[in-house]
Each structure stands twice: as C-alpha cells, then as structure tokens.
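User: Some background: our group keeps a shared notebook of sequences we're curious about, and every so often someone picks one and asks for a predicted structure to add to the entry. Today it's my turn. The entry only has the sequence so far, pasted here. Could you supply the structure so I can complete it?
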Amino acid sequence: MKANKTLLGLFFLAASAMPQFTVAQDVSINIFPIPGSPLNHTNSVLEVAICNEDTENIPADANRLTPLVSFPDNLDILGAVNEDGSPLTNFAIMVMTNDPDNHNIRLINVNPIPNGECFIFHIQIRGNSTEGGGTTTATLGFEGPQTEGNNIGNDNGTAVITVMLNLPVTLKAFNAVAEGKTALLNWSTTEETNSDHFDVQRSSDGKNWKTFETVASHGDSKELNLYSATDKDPLNGENLYRLHMIDRDGSSTYSSIRNVNFEIEPVVVYPNPASNQIKIKTAEWEKIVSIDLTDSNGKSVYKSGEKLESTIDINKLRGGVYTVRIVQKNGSESDHKIVIGK
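Assistant: Of course. Here's the predicted structure to add to the notebook entry:
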C-alpha cells in the first residue's frame, strides 16, 4: 500500500514538472496586392500578413498554420519570398500549382509567431491575360484540428487584382492625310517598353481590318521617335486607319482611328443592256488585278488573264443577267450587274 502511494506521488510530481504546451487561440490572415492593378505580362506581388492576435501572451506554435492562397487563372504564381525579397525564413512552401482552375499556393509556418506580432511574406505573381480575372482568396488552415476558441471570422481574406493592359508604347500623336492618290500616315512615341513593331491597318467599315504595312519599332526608348507609312492604294470613299502596336511578348493594343476620304474615278462597265460586247472603262488599269464574269447561277463564264482587256466578247453567251466582278490590288471588289439581251 505504501509503495502504491509512493508511485502515485511520483506520477503527480512528474506531471507537474512537464512543460505546459499552449497555442494561440486567435490568428488572422490579411492580403494586400502591391500594386492593386499590375500590368499584363509584368511581375507583381501579393503581400500576406499572418498575425497572432490572441488576448493572452501565447505564441502561435510552429508547423501549425497552413495558409492557402488561390488566384484566378490570369495570374501565374512564381513563388514566395520574405518582405524584403530574401528567401523565406518563417514559412515554407508546401505546394504550388498553376493548373487550369487551380492557381494555388499553400505554405506552413516553420517558426512560432509571438503574441502581438505578424509574419509577412510576399507571393510573387505575373499577369498572363487581361481577361478571365476574378477574386484572390486567402484561407488560414491548420495542421491538425483548429485550436479551441479560434475566431474563424479573421481566418479568410479576399482581394481583387485587376490585370491592366501593358501598353508597349506611349503614343504621342497619330495622323493620316491624303497626299495625291495616296494616304500618308505619321505617328510619334515618347516611350517604348519591349515594343516590337507596328502593323498599319486599313478598313472601310471599321470591322474588317487589313494590314498593308509593318513598321519596326525602336524596342526600348524614352526619347521622341518618329514613324511613317504610306497607303499607295487607298479605297474609293472613306478609308479608316489604325495602328496595331505589338510587344515582343505578343501583347498588343490599338491606337485610335483616323479617316481619309478619296474620290477616285469609278470603274464603268457598259453598255447595259449589252448584246455583243461588254466594255470596261477606268483611268487606273494598273490597280486592277482581275475581271470575272458569272451568270445568274454563279457559274464563271469569263476570267481575265494576266493581260487585262477592256472589251469582253459576249456573242456566245445566252441572254440573261450577269455579274462583272472587278478586283483591285488594294483588296477592294466591285460587282456590276449587266443584262445581256439576245
């Protein structure tokens, strides 16, 4: 009996001598984009602050906190570093993925967080598109069960990081004027960053655009640079012009639109009705590529050769409605309905 009392006393002595391990009951997570709207195809950071906010003077134990930060697909995760850019010291990366619908990074604290203090680190990110954005979320997880009394209200954080268009150039001026039978375009830039080239484009309706000249840019510059291009075959009527400014990494943007009007002598097809011949009159034969004649069913009954003729023999054609299609070097096409009477 005495031996049992002695053993029981030793048990209570040992238990009282053991250290009492306690963990912080309340730890918060907050995230701050720096900057809030990064440029596309450039690096940025998301600042993460994990703070021990417990009312008691208790540290948050190491290897217990596992924050998870999730990004939309238009933001790629590059890694995580200390606030000053040095390698992580208070956290370690557990997993990092950039799979579709799964741009996530999870870390774990490798050092205890003293009461009333915050551990801050930066997640390095890079915008890959100005589209498909969303909300970035941060969730404070735990290795094992949550500690009793944890305030789940501060275990989450959200931020909206809008990826902005990264303009390859700062366009100072862009003008287009008629010069004789051509359109002269001039533009200037005051700053270029990773710029590759300009596609000079023309349209007749503002929807369908065609590049008629490509001009190389200076690449990287903070000086005034002057550029020019000439549209040698403008369309009859209104011509719309714009610059497609393309970066070396493929990102691009467009300038505002300029318009120039030309009153070009139209191509005339006569007589109408016709019986033996169809005649074509134009002052600019050098701008015509081909002349086609089709019947009412769309079947071709005449195609011009390399040498264009101003007269088409129609003696062997049946009477009916036909279409003369004239294609010019600038890509424009004109259809002329002709009635052939027999």
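Suggested note for the entry: The longest strand covers residues 169-179. Residues 1-22 have pLDDT under 50 and may be disordered.
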